[in-house]
């Protein structure tokens, strides 16, 4: 078992310390350049669209608002990763790792934009709602069924078995340490609540997320701001330390821990890190090959805005390059 664990750890080190850091930063810089810093110059438009739920569903069609879609996405980002991931990154790379987490978050937003745009382009109409994501643009965009199937398997293993266990384990330990609750009882309650929400479909997930996520995010931000305010006199020293400690390979690698490190001392989490690494590689390859289509959609959106249209609508018939790609537009 020790040999297997060492072998898996070696693969993890190679993937997360070299392969993925180059691919993630490379794609982030490239997409930021090609979209002309879309994550910054269209920030105001993002806020407007986020709060705009004026687009109603067609009769008989279930609908979630822009804010609910945002809440569902944010639910997987604010939580254990923000606490454990940051702490682990700083432990690995020192204060300078914070600097690289800032850079990766800011520039990586362009990669997220391309990914989300492609997911919208290649989504399909399901029974009660639209379905899509990386597996769909791999299948319908690249025409690679095997790649879509591989991604689906990797994401099911990574999130379905490993990361859900991390979240529930963290909650149970916190409840036991703070209030003395039995982890078995807390785990059972979590399981029942999760089943009730998940089997309600995306509409129920969206409704619950739109209530819980703002509370969770506001609590997280309030706690962070409180810590900063109570130590405000140390802030200049902290920023100076972060910047001055940033430029070293171990610091950059430490910043990447945010993406892959959970509890890699255990074999199970090491395996999860590997599946997540390969899942990320598949996705980066796909969005890189299909990125031109995302750029076309962005240009079309901007052109419609400049012509005076408040809420641009994508019409595949106006873009011959994408006419045969989209089904739902």
Q: Which consecutive residue ranges, at least 5 long each, have pLDDT under 50?
A: 57-61, 253-265
Number of strands: 2
Distance between the termini: 52 Å
Structural class: mainly alpha
Oligomer: single chain
Describe this structure in words.
With 329 residues, this protein is mainly alpha-helical. It has one domain (2-49, 66-322). It is 75% helix and 1% strand. It has 13 helices and 2 strands, in the order ααααααββααααααα. It has helices at 2-34, 38-41, 43-50, 66-75, 80-93, 96-121, 134-141, 145-179, 183-198, 201-230, 235-244, 249-260, 267-306, and strands at residues 124-125, 130-131. It has a two-stranded antiparallel ribbon. β1 and β2 form a beta hairpin. α1 packs parallel to α13. Residues 57-61 and 253-265 have low confidence and may be disordered.
Give the helices and strands, then pairings:
Elements lengths: L1 H33 L3 H4 L1 H8 L15 H10 L4 H14 L2 H26 L2 E2 L4 E2 L2 H8 L3 H35 L3 H16 L2 H30 L4 H10 L4 H12 L6 H40 L23
Antiparallel strand pairs: 1-2
